[in-house]
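It is worth pausing here to work through a concrete case rather than discussing structure prediction in the abstract. The textbook approach is simple: state the sequence, then state the predicted structure, then interpret. We follow exactly that order.
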Amino acid sequence: MTITPLLVGPRVRLAPLSSVDSSTIARWQTDNEYLRLLDSNPAFPKNESQIAEWMREGQRGRENFLFGIRTLNEDFLIGFLELGEILWTHRTTWLAIGIGESDYRDVGYGHEAIGLALEFAFRELNLHRVQLTVFGYNLRAIALYEKLGFQREGTFREFLDRDNQRHDMYLYGILRHEWDKR
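Step two, the predicted structure:
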């Protein structure tokens, strides 16, 4: 039997976050584009202690797997990825990703990181479904999710108000057998 490496791709790896990472993630909180693509909450930066608490919460229990996205060559933290709120009875989870380092956006790192997370979710955790939401104005993320095989399953119409404009939020999901067929 050949054992393939878990959580390691050609350019990135998914690794646990450490306490020293909180300062890097806090720095990302000053990037309004990052904040407005990541969350429906107001784009309000969190400080280092708030980030550290978020990290502690994300690494507790069996329902969440929080990873840092690190480059293989430099071991540089460029983002995070979380498989969260796992419902083990139903074998489903939510996926969240953020590439905080702007120089690493739109060059394939997110694609690779999500691919590693889906392999982990379906092969190691034996989950059946991975789902996520994305804002209608985040066209880059929508294209990425569809390229990976996620299917748009629903629309939360006019869910978000940004700059006095209403925006839809979409629900996407991918099932294990769909990932297997890619």
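Step three, interpretation. The longest helix spans residues 109-124. The chain is about 30% helix and 35% strand.
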